[in-house]
Specification:
Distance between the termini: 76 Å
Oligomer: single chain
Shape: globular
Largest sheet: 6 strands, antiparallel, barrel
């Protein structure tokens, strides 16, 4: 695991090794039995260790999770230095090998790996996992981390072991033999790290009954996860690709993120002097893998092997298990060509990935190809030579002339919807809906008057019930009977009615979609489409900027026509998301209303950091969007996590808006995302706290020009 460096204790600056140890331990978790009544620090429920391999995914040993009861465990982790521990329920998603029965603790055969999927999204650190297989090493040193019971208390610990070779052959039974330290009970499932490269290479599997050391399993054994029997229509249909694409995007986005003083894995790898394959710096490698992870995965292992063979010819040394994803292919290039001149192979590999056959395409595939090309172009500047750069440019031009290979975005979206039971019609036929209106009292801002009505497809509404001076925190309980009756009048079998919530602009962030009418009830937004409307559009405060104030001189008819034109365009021609308040993880002001009016009609504004009160006041941002003539916008409620990575939200929000085809499908798509969050599907975790502003200018609210029938 030293890759040409001198064996023995890790060298290099001591600060870098301390920083590496901190990163490893921050990602290490402990696994407990699930069930009510267990304290977080109870040694009796402790099963073993694990580590975050990707957002909301934990890698551990199969024998650790199978020592508990059922298919659930509790994952205990630390949110950050000095911030204490938290616990979250996890589901055992897959184990290797998959065999019936629950073996006794410690007897699970190799590779003895398990992936645990969290039941809800949380913010946490992730370890960096190597993209190359762990080869045979006669000697070297590795770092390990885990939890154990010390003096009757659960304690986190770390240490070093020496690599003493392998156990088994080139098969799934192969393990790395470790010695030099006593591995205490409970560390099984913890990460094993190469301190020279600064990356996780294995998972602790066992310890010797007597003496020092034990064994670990190389992380490349995850490549032997079962391949889905049916063609994949989306990334998350294959757990292997779902986990490692999320892993690579996380580290790419974390490297871009300026909102923390802590070192990233690439920072520490750079301090260690690591050179991935000797062709790239750690930062270049992180950016390349992140861009490859934005592409659909290879069509098959055979297709990936063919690509590698076309590049390497007789040099091709195919590792075991065979590479499965784009990152694995990059690791194979490292092993097959160890010369400094291998940069051209890496760039050629990226170009081949750009034009490879696709198992599916997404609305963001073309943008991902362009971003990868930009990385190739910038990386190639001044290094391989002018003739080589011209050839790359010609390949890119030829790529632009080709459509993405694979099912169309619409076909992929339809297949995805069929697989997951979400509505994927060509449009949403008008149906009955429920309207909830809240009026904030100026002299009592913590209380609201309210009205519950049933809306007809024509836009007319029939008032059912009213209430006065209800405290905000009591609204869910007070409104439950009225809303339940309204839903009963509107719901159809298998088709719950939409809930439109008309809120004053100061309350547009109210999380009505999370309301529950009982402790075991499904949240409103997970059960039915819930959208937000602006109840006081005509009484919005004047914009502070002069340009926007000048825009207010527009005649009311002109302003209404502009809103209706935008509405028609995104419903008839499709839409494109535009993140307004965040650039590469840095909070930026939302443009003034006059600038927003200049954006194309296909634009759907997106706010990444709504609720981050350290910066511009949120109502100001939303007022600008409303003044800009928009009837549709997306945002997520910021949870106060200053170091949360937001690249996945930007990417997925863009794909959702573009893939909708028309904005009329967004209420149902957002509902499907909330339902997925409720069900614990990791592919939806990016949408935690999502809100949809959907304010039809052709359907005015009561009191603004429509017909209101008597009860």
């Amino acid at each position: 695991m030293t890759d040409g460096h001198a064996p023995g204790a890790p060298g290099g600056p001591g600060n870098a090794h301390r920083a590496l140890r901190d990163l490893v331990m921050a990602a290490t978790v402990r696994i407990h039995r699930a069930g009510p009544g267990y304290a977080l620090d109870e040694p009796g429920t402790f099963l073993g260790s694990g580590f975050f391999i990707a957002p909301n995914w934990v890698l551990t040993c199969a024998h650790v999770v199978r020592s508990g009861e059922g298919n659930e465990v509790r994952v205990v982790y630390e949110r950050g230095p000095g911030r204490g521990t938290s616990a979250v329920t996890g589901e055992v998603a897959t184990v290797l090998p998959d065999r019936a029965g629950l073996p006794a603790r410690g007897t699970w055969p190799s590779p003895d790996l398990a992936l645990v999927r969290l039941r809800e999204p949380v913010d946490h650190d992730c370890a960096y996992v190597t993209e190359r297989p762990a080869a045979y090493y006669e000697e070297g040193v590795v770092l390990y981390s885990g939890w154990s019971v010390v003096g009757g208390e659960l304690r986190r610990l770390s240490g070093t072991c020496t690599v003493q070779g392998t156990l088994g052959g080139w098969s799934d039974d192969e393990q790395i033999r470790l010695g030099g330290d006593v591995l205490p009970p409970g560390v099984s499932g913890g990460p094993v790290v190469d301190p020279v490269r600064g990356e996780v290479v294995g998972v602790l599997k066992s310890r010797t009954d007597r003496g020092l050391g034990g064994t670990c399993t190389g992380v490349e054994q995850l490549r032997s996860l079962p391949v889905p029997a049916e063609e994949t229509a989306a990334e998350h249909d294959d757990p292997y690709h779902a986990v490692f694409h999320a892993h690579d995007r996380y580290h790419r986005d974390r490297q871009r993120h300026p909102d923390t003083d802590r070192s990233t894995w690439a920072d520490v790898q750079n301090q260690l002097g690591a050179r991935p394959g000797r062709a790239l710096s750690p930062e270049e490698r992180t950016q390349l893998l992140g861009r490859l992870a934005d592409l659909p995965p290879p069509a098959s292992t055979r297709a990936l092997l063919g690509l590698l063979e076309s590049l390497l010819g007789d040099q091709a040394a195919i590792p075991h298990p065979a590479p499965r994803g784009w990152r694995d292919g990059l690791g194979a290039l490292y092993e097959s060509s160890r010369q400094d001149a291998a940069l051209d192979l890496v760039l050629d590999y990226a170009m081949r990935a750009m034009s490879a056959d696709r198992p599916f395409v997404t609305p963001g595939t073309r943008a991902a190809e362009r971003a990868l090309w930009e990385w190739v172009r910038q990386t190639a500047e001044g290094r391989p030579g002018p003739a080589y750069r011209r050839r790359l440019g010609q390949q890119w031009i030829e790529r632009l002339q080709l459509a993405p290979r694979g099912p169309s975005a619409a076909e992929a979206e339809a297949a995805h919807g069929a697989a997951h039971g979400t509505a994927r019609g060509a449009g949403r036929a008008p149906r009955l809906f429920v309207l909830l209106e809240l009026e904030q009292l100026g002299w009592e801002p913590g209380r609201c008057d309210w009205h519950v009505s049933v809306g007809r497809p024509t836009g007319e509404v029939v008032r059912l019930r009213d209430g006065e001076r209800t405290p905000l925190e009591e609204l869910p309980a007070v409104l439950a009977p009225a809303l339940t009756e309204a839903f009963r009048q509107c719901d159809e079998p298998g088709r719950p009615a939409d809930l439109q919530v008309a809120l004053p602009h100061l309350l547009l962030g109210l999380d009505v979609d999370t309301w529950q009418f009982g402790p075991d009830e499904v949240p409103l937004g997970a059960h039915r489409p819930v959208v937000v409307r602006c109840a006081d559009r005509e009484q919005l405060p004047e914009p502070a900027d002069a340009a926007a104030r000048a825009g207010k001189t527009l005649l009311a008819d002109e302003e209404r026509h502009e809103r209706e034109a935008r509405w028609r365009w995104i419903h008839e021609h499709g839409a494109q998301a535009e993140v307004l308040d965040c650039e590469d993880g840095l909070r930026v002001p939302v443009p003034v209303a006059e600038s927003l009016r200049g954006l194309p009609h296909k634009t759907v504004p997106v706010l990444c950091r709504y609720g981050d009160h350290r910066f511009e006041d949120d109502p100001v941002a939303l007022v600008r969007i409303v003044h800009g003539g928009y009837g549709v916008a997306l945002w997520r409620r910021w949870r106060g996590q200053s170091e949360a990575v937001c690249g996945e939200f930007h990417r997925r929000a863009g794909d959702t808006v573009a893939g909708a085809g028309g904005a009329d499908r967004l209420p149902e798509l957002v509902h499907a995302l909330r339902a997925g969050l409720r069900e614990g599907r990791p592919e939806t975790y990016w949408a935690h706290g999502i809100a949809l502003f959907y304010d039809d200018p052709r359907r005015p609210l009561p009191g603004t020009g429509d017909l209101l029938e008597a009860p």
